[in-house]
């Protein structure tokens, strides 16, 4: 599907002909994000220069009836940046300046296209720290992180992106520009609109500037890798560490399938007989860190760890961390298609969930590797399959359906950090219930009456509106 | 992660200019959503420098170099627009497999450099009338006297090296002279032979060696590359040497792929695989087999630039640095973005001059930043590109191959002068 010539001309006028791309090779390459199996080319790719242009584009979208899909680096895993029918992609990577780092106030104004790892480097040079560290941090951008409320390995101790967004400047779907929050560390004036927008998956606003909150850089970090003969014992170790009132910065788990894939890829020198690996990091004051690291080592050994390795240098720590960071890509080498999800459960239910995933995968005859943030219950069951084999995909999807159901039954969620996007839309009502979905639709209808901004993401259109194409004015009627 | 490692993505921040997007386009062609002779597809495939930094960065082991070559092969077979122009691509692809023609070309170039090339008005006029030809000529370093067979002896024995102590040869290695290297940097081959002989290796340099075929394969002419592979495999077998030592990163990397290149060939498949198993970069060989410590201290500051086909292609990064570290008194400083392509990329600096220039400037800036007097790199293409970039800013910084630095550190008189 395309947009009208008048809309195209309008876009070129609102920005510049050079920044409105309609060549086939551009439409094809912006048709997908990192979500496997889903793809749809946009009608155009537009590179706005500033907030005024973004506002003009959104107003035009309302007038000319096309949809707008904002995009950072396209590393999302739920389809948030996949173009919808009759849509344009709004590209932000060129907005990559860190405008200001305010050391005294512990904040930084950043443009949405700043790469997360670049932000880490810049603030760490000032003795500060931006904790959220998604797996794709060397590629992903802050704008996308805010839209998805991205997590990361350091989430257990430090929290997620939402905890570090102190201010936002955004353009609403109807073209109004708003500034929310600011440098005051506490602010309860009016409704918490900023918190509504963080994690809205590009459906309620387009971010043009983000004020991130920074904390002091931890003085010392200690990294340990502990190997266990069974996933259950590893789960017990996780519980024991937390029960000992230690809050590690990172507490990650990898199952046998995953750790063998990592070993094959990186030659870590892991001993035989391991069925689970824990990556644990503590950071903070040197004395506390040493004590905690020591305690963690003892706990793991007491619970039967086959091997506990403590990094003695930053280089070694990087090596150990990379064992976990390479988990997904190491698994991805095992088959043509790797489908990664992030079903999350209350952390006490992690051992139970691991057992259920194992049982479900065996029953459906699909291979799963499981790794994730054991400390906060955010697991990443990863299915290794082949997108060209229709039958295998059907089985994989059936397995995931059961996994999501299991997570919900255990009091958890279908998505801890990747977002609902397109990939998990059909499970949303099952988890949050119809009243909550109705509430979401009402908010959407108020902010975006013509459904121009990333329509069809997070929740499906209501049951009465099967026929009007997304972005069509009738869509709004049907949603009312 | 490939995106931050990709030089063309840094130049053109669009998906079609990074590995992820290029693979996306290849998939689109495979699905029939994009025609294989679509000029956009060809352009995207040829905008890539082929440095394979993405392979080094890819934790999933995607063999992008392979995919790119296959894509270019089908693009060439389809023969549509969007591919690099005929000049000077076809001229080079025709000339490089023929040593006689290379020598003739080099002689003409040398003559030009000593006559018309010195006249500013002529150079400016050429730049206006034939910018592509002007670029080719501007890139070329000063061409030395050619002489017969590039003035390399047929073989060099440890006993031929004065001061080597006449040791018994440890073994026999064959040295491949490269194609342009022999014409433009014959001293690199001479230095390589001397350094090897000094370290007790008998070096044979059979005349039957030909262009390795890398450029042909990288320009989508796989059949032509296969022909050259067969010639080189046969020449190596006939030489009686145990190993093939390469001093040109691009060639060395391609020799290692001969096995894959000819794997479907019933007669040559196994022979090519055996050949590929015996190829080694000269620095790898010296460090792996043990080399004599140079005694002469050099009090200069140098920096090392990683040729893409050595670090990403052959995965050799430590050996050349160890060679430099073995030279007493040498102040080796690290080069920022040393693994970043200089823009030579085979004939990329001729087919994509603007992009190559931007990459060159980035590289030259980093080189100047180091404060080094000398930049060391083990590939003729890189040496040409970096030298041209340094000339453009009137820099006194010199460019040398690691073996040339080593030969000087061994205090061996050069086999011949330029």
Describe it for me?
The complex is a heterodimer of chains A (480) and B (418). Chain A is an alpha+beta fold and 480 residues long. Chain A folds into three domains: 1-217, 2-Layer Sandwich (Uridine Diphospho-n-acetylenolpyruvylglucosamine Reductase, domain 3); 220-328, Alpha-Beta Plaits; 335-427, Alpha-Beta Plaits (2-Layer Sandwich), CATH 3.30.70.2740. Chain A has helices at 5-14, 24-29, 51-64, 116-124, 142-148, 155-158, 193-197, 231-243, 256-266, 286-302, 314-325, 327-332, 350-364, 390-409, 428-432, 434-447, 473-479; strands at residues 20-21, 44-46, 67-71, 87-91, 98-102, 107-110, 128-129, 165-171, 177-181, 206-213, 215-216, 220-228, 250-255, 276-284, 307-310, 337-340, 367-373, 378-385. In chain A, strands 15-12-14-13-17-18-16 form a seven-stranded antiparallel beta sheet, with helices on both faces. In chain A, helix 8 runs antiparallel to helix 13. With 418 residues, chain B is α/β, with parallel strands linked by helices. Chains A and B meet through helix 2 and helix 12 of A and helix 3 and helix 4 of B.
CATH architecture annotation of the domain at 292-409 in chain B = 3-Layer(aba) Sandwich
Overall shape of chain B: it is globular
Structural class of chain B: alpha/beta
**The CATH C-level class name of the domain at 292-409 in chain B:** Alpha Beta
Distance between the termini of chain B: 44 Å
Number of H/I helices of chain B: 24
Oligomeric state as shown? heterodimer
Could you name the ranges of chain B where pLDDT drops below 50 across 5 or more consecutive residues? none
Would you identify the regions of chain A where 5 or more consecutive residues have pLDDT less than 50? 464-480
As laid out across the biggest beta sheet of chain A, the strand order is 15-12-14-13-17-18-16
- 3D shape of chain A: globular
Helicity level of chain A, as a percent range? Answer: 25-40%
Annotation field: number of helices of chain A? 17
Mean pLDDT of chain A: 91
The rounded distance between the terminal residues' Cα atoms of chain A is 26 Å
Radius of gyration of chain A: 23 Å
Summed over residues and divided by their number, the pLDDT of chain B gives a mean of 93
* Total DSSP E strands of chain A: 18
């Amino acid at each position: 599907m395309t947009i009208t010539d008048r809309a195209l001309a309008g876009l070129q006028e609102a920005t510049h002909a050079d920044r409105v791309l309609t060549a086939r090779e551009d439409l094809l390459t912006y048709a997908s994000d990192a979500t496997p199996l889903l793809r749809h080319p946009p009608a155009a790719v537009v590179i706005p220069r500033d907030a005024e242009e973004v506002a003009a584009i959104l107003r035009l979208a309302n007038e000319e009836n096309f949809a707008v899909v904002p995009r950072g680096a396209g590393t999302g895993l739920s389809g948030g940046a996949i173009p919808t029918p009759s849509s344009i992609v709004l590209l932000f990577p060129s907005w990559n300046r860190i405008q200001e780092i305010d050391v005294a106030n512990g904040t930084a104004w950043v443009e949405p296209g700043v790469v997360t790892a670049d932000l880490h480097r810049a603030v760490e040079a000032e003795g500060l720290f931006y904790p959220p560290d998604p797996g794709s941090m060397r590629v992903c951008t802050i704008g996308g992180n805010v839209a998805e409320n991205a997590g990361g390995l350091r989430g257990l101790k430090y929290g997620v992106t939402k905890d570090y967004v102190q201010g936002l400047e955004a353009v609403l779907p109807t073209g109004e520009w708003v500034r929310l929050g600011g440098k005051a560390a506490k602010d309860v004036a009016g409704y918490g609109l900023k918190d509504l927008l963080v994690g809205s998956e590009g459906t309620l606003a387009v971010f043009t500037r983000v004020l991130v909150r920074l904390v002091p850089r931890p003085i010392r970090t200690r990294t340990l890798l502990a190997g266990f003969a069974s996933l259950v014992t590893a789960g017990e170790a996780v519980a024991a560490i937390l029960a000992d009132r230690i809050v590690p910065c990172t507490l990650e788990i990898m199952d046998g399938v995953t750790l063998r894939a990592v070993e094959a890829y990186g030659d870590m020198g892991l001993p035989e007989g391991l069925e689970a690996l824990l990556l644990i990091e503590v950071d903070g004051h040197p004395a506390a860190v040493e004590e905690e690291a020591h305690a963690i080592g003892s706990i793991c050994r007491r619970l039967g760890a086959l091997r506990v390795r403590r990094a003695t240098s930053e280089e070694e720590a990087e090596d150990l961390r990379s064992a976990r960071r390479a988990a997904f890509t190491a698994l991805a080498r095992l088959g043509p298609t790797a489908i990664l999800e992030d079903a999350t459960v209350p952390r006490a239910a992690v051992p139970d969930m691991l057992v259920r995933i194992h049982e479900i995968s065996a029953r459906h005859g699909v291979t799963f590797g499981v790794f994730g943030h054991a400390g906060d219950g955010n697991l990443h069951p990863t299915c290794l399959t082949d997108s060209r084999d229709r039958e295998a995909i059907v089985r994989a999807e059936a397995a995931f359906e059961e996994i999501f159901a299991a997570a919900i039954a255990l009091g958890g969620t279908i998505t801890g950090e990747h977002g609902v996007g397109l990939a998990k839309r059909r499970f949303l009502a099952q988890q949050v219930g119809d009243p909550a979905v109705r509430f979401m639709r009402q908010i959407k209808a108020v902010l975006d009456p013509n459904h121009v901004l990333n329509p069809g993401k997070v929740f499906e259109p209501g049951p009465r509106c099967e026929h009007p194409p997304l972005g069509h004015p009738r869509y709004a009627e049907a949603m009312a | 992660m490939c995106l931050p490692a990709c030089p063309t993505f840094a130049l053109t921040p669009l998906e079609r200019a990074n590995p992820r997007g290029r693979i996306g386009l290849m998939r689109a062609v495979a699905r029939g959503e994009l025609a294989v002779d679509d000029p956009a597809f060809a352009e995207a495939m040829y905008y890539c420098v082929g440095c394979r930094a993405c392979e080094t960065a890819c934790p999933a082991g995607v063999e992008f170099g392979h995919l790119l070559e296959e894509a270019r092969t089908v693009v060439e077979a389809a023969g549509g627009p969007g591919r690099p122009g005929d000049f000077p691509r076809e001229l080079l692809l025709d000339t490089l497999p023929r040593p006689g023609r290379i020598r003739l070309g080099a002689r003409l170039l040398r003559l030009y450099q000593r006559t018309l090339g010195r006249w500013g008005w002529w150079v400016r006029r050429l730049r206006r009338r034939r910018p592509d030809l002007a670029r080719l000529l501007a890139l070329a370093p000063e061409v030395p006297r050619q002489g017969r067979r590039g003035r390399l002896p047929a073989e060099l024995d440890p006993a031929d090296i004065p001061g080597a102590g006449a040791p018994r040869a440890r073994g026999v290695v064959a040295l491949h002279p490269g194609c342009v290297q022999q014409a433009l940097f014959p001293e690199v081959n001479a230095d390589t032979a001397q350094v090897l002989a000094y370290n007790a290796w008998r070096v044979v340099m059979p005349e039957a060696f030909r262009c390795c075929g890398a450029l042909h394969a990288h320009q989508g002419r796989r059949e032509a590359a296969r022909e050259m592979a067969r010639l080189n495999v046969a020449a190596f077998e006939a030489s009686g040497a145990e190993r093939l030592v390469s001093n040109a990163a691009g060639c060395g990397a391609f020799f290692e792929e001969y096995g894959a290149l000819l794997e479907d060939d019933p007669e040559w498949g196994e022979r090519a695989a055996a050949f590929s198993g015996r190829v080694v970069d000269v620095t790898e060989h010296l460090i792996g087999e043990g080399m004599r410590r140079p005694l002469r201290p050099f009090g200069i500051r140098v920096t090392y630039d990683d040729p893409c086909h050595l670090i990403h292609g052959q995965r050799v990064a430590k050996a050349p640095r160890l060679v430099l570290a073995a030279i007493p008194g040498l102040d080796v400083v690290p080069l920022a973005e040393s693994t970043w392509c200089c823009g030579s990329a085979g004939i990329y600096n001729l087919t994509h001059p603007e992009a190559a220039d931007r990459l060159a400037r980035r590289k030259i800036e980093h080189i100047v930043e180091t404060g080094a007097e000398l930049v060391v790199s083990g590939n003729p293409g890189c040496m040409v590109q970096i030298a041209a970039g340094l000339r453009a800013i009137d820099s006194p910084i010199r460019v040398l191959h690691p073996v040339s630095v080593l030969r000087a550190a061994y205090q061996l008189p050069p086999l011949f002068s330029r």
